Each structure stands twice: as C-alpha cells, then as structure tokens.
Amino acid sequence: SQCKAMTVKFTVELDIERLTGQTYTDFIKNLRRSLATWYLHGVPVLPLYNQEADPRGFDLKLTFRGQVTTVRIHRDDLVLRGYQMQGAGKWLELERPSTQTGHLIEGSELLEFGPSYEELAAAAQQDILDISYNKNALQDAVSKLAVSTNTRDRARSLIVVSQMFCEATRFVDIANHFAFNLESSEPVKLPQWMQNDLEKNWVRFSFMILKSNADPCYKFEPQTIYGKIIKTADELLNFLGIVEQHPDTRSPPCAAG
Asked: For the whole prediction, is pTM greater than 0.85?
C-alpha cells in the first residue's frame, strides 16, 4: 500500500561550528523534551507509534560555515528518513526504488539505500564501528550532505548524523559518550557494547519498560548491558533518554489478584 507523506511537526536548528560538549548535551536534552508526549519517572516518552495515521516527522537543520543541510526524522521512532541538500529544494529519501512503498516525503527522489544501518553501512562501504563520531566528523557530514552526490560520502554522513542525533536522543550513555569526546582531535568510535547492548534493543527495551509499567502481571526478563545484569524495568529505564511507545504496550493489563 502507498504510504502517506510525512507531516513536519517542528524544526530545530544547530550550528555545528560553535558546538561544544555542553551545548551538544543541552541540544539533545531539549530535543527529548520537544519530542515527549508524557514522562515515565522523568524519562520522556514518544508519541504513540501509529502506522495508520499520517506519519509525523521533524526537521533538523544543520549548518556549518554557510553550508546547510536539513534532515527529516520520523517522530514516532526517530529513524532518519531523508535530507535536503543545500539550496536544492528537492528532498532525498532513504528508500530503494525497488521497495515500492511510495514516498514518505512528498516529491522526494529515492536514494539507492534504505534507512537501516545495514543498508547505510553497505552503501558507505564502512562498518558503523569504524566511523568517527566527533565535531570534526559532524562538520564533514554537514558539508558532504550539503553538496556531495557521492553515494559513499552521503551514506557515511547520514550514519554520523543518525548516531549523533537519533541514537544519542535514545540513549543516555551514547549522548554522554559523544558529548565527552566531541572536541577530541582523534577519531571517536562507537564502543561495540553500545551498538550490541543498547542500539539493537531500543524498541524491545521500550516495550519491556512500558509493558511493565502498564501490566502488573508482566514478567520482566533480566537483561545484560555492558556485562551488568539489569533486573527491573526501572533499572532499565535509566539507560534510555527517550522511550518508544508501541501500541501493544497499551493492551489492557491482566486481571491482577
């Protein structure tokens, strides 16, 4: 079925040239607040993920020394879906033409790769863990997205933006890691445990946290993060910067007692 075009709910802007670890941290925290529909023990929860209604997005406008690129991110799941080159007007969408799902961004040109990290890494010809994530990398990403038509450069730059904004918004440890190392002159890599233990589990962790909160009969399965056993949903919640709200978590709880 043809999907509907995404409506943009708000736009946030960030100048990469003057970015510091502190202003980056503040930006991520403000972004979480802008996205929140409610809070669970102080942690923002995203709007209900809805596949029937018109998809909602937000734009992130990034500038560096006069160069501009705007990326469009799906609000319900924080997946980067497209971007706009400098002065081009036309949007480029992360979707292979062969998927036949239609355009999430109206009038967009479909790229040769989809939004998953597997497809992005294949197009970039580089592993997620081999890419650098710091201020230099972000400046380079903005410059490349503003003007480059090279698939490898585009894909690598989109990975940098997705990690440093989408993943950092999802996870406290990832935001802290990027903030602490932002101004490093050496390449800054993503630790493997953050990819394996956190990033690959955000949807599942979100579900477990909200289900535990809504359903007294839900049995929480202990999780392992960085070698530590996490025994409760409240403990797991501490790792999340924002929680995805899946419709399944709102099913009526069992009859307790």
From this structure: yes
